[in-house]
Amino acid sequence: MRAADLLKIDETDRKILAALSRRGRSSYKEIGxxxxxxxxxxxxxxxxxxxxxxxxxxxxxxxxDALGRALHVMITFKFDPDRKYEKKPNDLxxxxxRGCADVLRFWEIFGELDFLIEAAFxxxxxxxxxxxxxxxxxxxxxxxxxxxxNTGPLREQEPV
Length: 160
Hints:
This protein is an alpha+beta fold. The chain has 2 domains: 3-51, Arc Repressor Mutant, subunit A (Orthogonal Bundle), CATH 1.10.10; 71-144, Alpha-Beta Plaits (2-Layer Sandwich). The chain is 38% helix and 18% strand. The protein has 6 helices and 4 strands. The protein has a 4-stranded antiparallel beta sheet, covered by helices on one side. The model has no long low-confidence stretch (mean pLDDT 89).
């Protein structure tokens, strides 16, 4: 059973979640002003959603340019189905991804591809070196990110 099934999420909770997904460091007062609740009421709702597992954590949006890593890239990866691996393929790739400081995050995905990898590099040479290491395990496509915007997983719907 999902946490949201155990906890009744109402429209006000959805507005709080939308506010947190846009800016996770918002104060209880700022969120309260946006959703029409007092600071203590917002705090109580957020704590309840954290305890139920609806809110599982908070994260920071990192400006890769400010870190000196202007090459912000999304990489799609697929294992080579014709290759024999010495271990389970994921047991080879995941430590490589976790051990690379340029990898910001990654997702194992199902469908045509196996992994989606977000990385930021300080140079084209660093990017090519990493992509070559990935190619030892399978097929790689890289996509330079031109712009990002965090709309959050939940947001109030705007009329279309």
